[in-house]
Structures are given as structure tokens and as C-alpha cells.
Amino acid sequence: MKLDLRALLAGEYRTLPVLFDLELTESHDNHFSGLTDIRFDTPLHVEGTITNTSGYIRMLLTLSVSYTASCARCLEDVSGSFSFDVERTVVTPKMAEDLTEDRIDELVVVEDGFLSLDELLTECLELSLPFRFLCREDCKGLCQRCGKNLNDGPCDCEEKEIDPRLEPLRRLLEEMKAEESQNGDTQVSSQHEEK
Q1: Longest C-alpha distance within the chain, in Å?
Q2: In contact, 151 and 74? CB cutoff 8 Å
Q3: SS3 of 110, please?
Q4: What is the pLDDT of residues 167-179, one digit of tens each?
Q5: What is the pTM of this model?
Q6: Which of 7, 36, 116, 124 is the most buried (most CB within 10 A)?
Q7: Quick one: DSSP state of residue 137?
Q8: Would you list the DSSP string of 19-51?
């Protein structure tokens, strides 16, 4: 989506309302690197304003979208909606040259009076979505052995397999228990000898 800001930049009006829907389709033209496991059920709804206050131009947008994703533990579908705000200062290319690099993320550059938003908004969406989705906070996930969804009840696996990375810890715990029981036997026998 390209917004025409020429009249706003010329001072013909102070505020430009923004209202449009951005289709979220995966293609080579967009930057959905982290959004491959998410299906968007609606377009990205964009609503807000761009305001010119004596040459200081501020963009305030609210973005919302409905999605379906896989639960990170049990792989069941998780549906919901997500909403977030995007705030940026709108600058010309000449103004952007004069600013330090740490301020660049706070800016959006208007080119020849037009503001292109597709790449910025999809990038903001990617950065704002949760790192992982859960069907519920106490999701038990899948059995590592048979793959059964443990939210539906326990599986029929006889013996639960231990993660090989935890094997040294299991051995250490067994040694500590053996040592404790040995020390307990020693203390009991020494008490009997004292009597």
C-alpha cells in the first residue's frame, strides 16, 4: 500500500486518516521469514492517522489480524486474534541522512510524496507476534515415544523414556539416594551400638 502524502506535506490539511486492509500472502516479494507456521484468516487491518504538526509528521497506526497457528507442544491448531500499535516519525530522505543510526528504527521515509507501508507493516507484524503459540498454558504436549496428545489422557507406553541429556542427572540422583540410605543405615547401627 502506497499512501499519497503530497497534500499533507504541502500543508493543505493537518491529519490524514489511514484505513485499509493488507493481504498477507506468502510470496518472494514479502518478508515473512518467521511467519511460515501461521495461517492468517483475515487480512491485516490497518487503522490510524498521519499528522503533520508544523513539519513534524507522526504516524500512529493500530494493526489487527486473525490467525491460526500450531501449538508448540501438542501441534493442535490455535486460533485467535492479535492487535498491536505502530508509531513512527515520517521523514524525507534528506532528513533521514542527518539522523544517527540509533534513530532509524523510529522513522519511515517518504519518497517523492508517497509512503510505502507493506514491507514496514509485515516486518512489524513478524516482530510483534509471540515467539510460540500454546493451546493453553498447561498443555502437556505429545508423548515422546508414541506421539499421543497427552491432553487427551495418558498414553499406553509401558516405560517412559528418559531424555538422554538428563541421563547424567538421573545417575547422580540415584547415587545420592544410595549414599543417603547408606548413611542412614550407618547412623542407625551406631545408635544401637551406643545402647
Answers
A1: 103
A2: yes
A3: coil
A4: 888 889 999 999 8
A5: 0.67
A6: 124
A7: T
A8: EEEE-----TTS--TT-TTEEESS-EEEEEEEE
